[in-house]
Specification:
The chain has 163 residues and is an all-alpha fold. It has one domain. It is built from 7 helices and no strands. Helix 2 crosses helix 4 and helix 3 packs across helix 4. The longest helix is centred in the first third of the chain and has 17 residues. The chain is elongated and about 50 Å long. The two termini are 22 Å apart. InterPro entries: DEAD/DEAH_box_helicase_dom, P-loop_NTPase. This is DEAD/DEAH-box helicase domain-containing protein.
Length: 163
């Protein structure tokens, strides 16, 4: 269920970004996830350069805002997102979620990570050469790198049609 009340209160640029985030979540998860209000609030805060803190229990959806901000980024910028996890088990879970659920190239780095050059070239440096997410045409239409934040592309240009 989409948080329509929350979405209706947003200004046009934020509402456009929120709608892009909703479409991205729905698309990369094959229709299994749509962000809740808490997740959209955190996603928008980070996207617009504000801090956000989510105090929520295990399995409540704290990973989705991180993934959405990565997916909302301009792929041409080839940015790197660093997520610090306090537990190795959480690192592994997040690495798998980012890779398998959201299609985001990810590597967990901790004291157990091999230090040999071969490992880094096969894992880390190969991630840097990946320039397109799993659905390039969708991602290209949902990202607006050439559009300023004050005048985002109209939402109607990326509403998928159903046959």
């Amino acid at each position: 269920m989409l948080p329509l009340g929350y979405l209706s209160q947003l200004l046009a640029p934020e509402r456009t970004t929120a709608n892009r985030a909703i479409l991205l979540a729905w698309t990369v998860t094959n229709g299994t996830q749509a962000p809740r209000e808490m997740q959209l609030r955190a996603t928008l805060a980070t996207h617009y350069g504000q801090d956000s803190v989510i105090n929520a229990g295990t399995g409540s959806g704290k990973t989705l805002p991180i993934a959405l901000n990565i997916l909302l980024d301009d792929p041409q910028a080839q940015g790197i997102t660093l997520t610090i996890s306090p537990l190795k088990r959480l690192e592994i879970t997040q690495e798998n979620d980012f890779k398998l659920r959201y299609g985001i190239p990810t590597i967990a780095i901790n004291e157990d990570t091999p230090r040999e050059d071969k490992y880094w070239h096969q894992n880390m440096f190969s991630l840097a050469t990946i320039s397109s997410p799993p659905s390039p045409s969708l991602s290209d239409s949902l990202s607006s790198p050439s559009t300023s934040e004050s005048s985002p592309a109209p939402f109607s240009t990326f509403v998928p049609t159903h046959s």
